[in-house]
């Protein structure tokens, strides 16, 4: 039986979109988002979670109605170029606190995004509508080397009491959690220090820690979707160029994948691309014009 959605839900106004970024990436990565998909969503549901003030992006956010959130509680990433595990977990834990601000109680869903993802919001809204919001939902895509369940190690003291010893996790860049599951695992993951400490106890980064918390501490389960992609895969091969309109989350490879043996310039292929690779290495501008040929940036 199909559930009747309120206009509020079908417009995606019950979904919080939280993008984690850092000041040093603003110039390099944010233009791809602010020039493209962020113009197609209701900005008031989008929270850019960064670590410093930035006049240009505070202004651009204001123009689109996007919340610009500075969280400095986690300090600086000391181990650049590889940020410390505690620091990144702390940043995600801080993003999660937004769900518990009194002005944000209307959100039934928290969707986390890295700053190198193109989101097709209409498709996300349709997908999320299939999940009852009062379930322990966790939606994402397992990382390629980790399609198999991840095993808890003996050192991971926090979950010693769990009878299960395996869990699945949605890999890094993009996943959604229902408020119902968040409420259950709040003490471990909501708040910078809480998630930082949980990661430290589990000896895992934030995506694995969240998977472990959902499945072993909260009794939830990862629902897989093949419409979310991450740059741990060969994007030109993995994303069929004829299906771009149906996808939800499309990244490009610009992070550690580029530097540590991943595919250099990992990006989707866009048919009849409006921009050359030099003009648009992420391919996000070309993708945007493929989806919305009338958009102002399209030639
Ligand atoms: N990030 C951050 N602080 C840092 C480094 C990275 O908040 O010091 C964020 C970054 O903006 C992105 C996410 O963490 O949203 C993943 O970073 P990146 O894409 O560089 O790494 P990879 O995807 O290769 O793990
Ligand atoms: Mn990345």
From TrEMBL:
Keywords: Glycosyltransferase, Membrane, Signal-anchor, Transferase, Transmembrane, Transmembrane helix. It is a single-pass membrane protein; Single-pass type II membrane protein. Coiled coil: none annotated. The keyword Glycoprotein does not apply. It comes from the Eukaryota. One of its GO terms (molecular function) is glycosyltransferase activity. It is found in: Endomembrane system; Membrane. The keyword Transferase applies. Its main location: membrane. Residues 13-283 form the Fringe-like glycosyltransferase domain. One of its GO terms (cellular component) is membrane. Belongs to the glycosyltransferase 31 family. This is Fringe-like glycosyltransferase domain-containing protein. The chain holds residues 90 to 388 of 388 of the full protein.
């Amino acid at each position: 039986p199909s559930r009747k959605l309120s206009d509020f839900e079908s417009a995606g106004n019950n979904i919080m979109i939280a993008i984690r970024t850092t000041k040093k990436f603003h110039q390099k990565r944010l233009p791809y988002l602010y020039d493209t998909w962020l113009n197609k969503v209701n900005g008031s549901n989008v929270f850019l979670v960064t670590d410093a003030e930035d006049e240009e992006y505070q202004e651009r956010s204001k123009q689109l109605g996007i919340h610009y959130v500075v969280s400095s509680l986690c300090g600086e990433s000391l181990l650049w170029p590889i940020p410390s595990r505690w620091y990144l977990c702390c940043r995600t834990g801080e993003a999660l606190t937004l769900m518990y601000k009194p002005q944000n109680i209307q959100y039934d869903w928290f969707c986390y995004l890295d700053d190198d993802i193109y989101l097709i919001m209409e498709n996300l809204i349709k997908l999320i509508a299939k999940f009852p919001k009062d379930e322990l939902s966790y939606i994402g895509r397992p990382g390629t080397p980790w399609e198999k369940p991840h095993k808890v190690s003996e050192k991971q003291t926090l979950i010693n009491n769990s009878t299960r010893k395996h869990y699945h996790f949605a890999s890094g860049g993009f996943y959604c959690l229902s408020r119902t599951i968040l409420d259950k695992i709040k003490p471990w993951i909501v708040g910078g220090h809480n998630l930082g400490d949980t990661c430290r106890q589990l000896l895992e980064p934030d995506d694995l820690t969240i998977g472990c918390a959902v499945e072993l501490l909260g009794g939830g389960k990862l629902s897989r979707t093949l419409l979310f992609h991450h740059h741990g895969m060969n994007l030109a091969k993995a994303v069929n160029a004829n299906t771009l309109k149906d996808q939800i989350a499309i990244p490009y490879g610009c992070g550690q994948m580029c530097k540590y043996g991943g595919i250099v310039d990992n990006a989707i292929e866009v048919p009849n691309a409006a921009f050359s690779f030099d003009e648009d290495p992420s391919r996000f501008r070309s993708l945007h014009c493929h989806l919305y040929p009338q958009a102002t940036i399209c030639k």
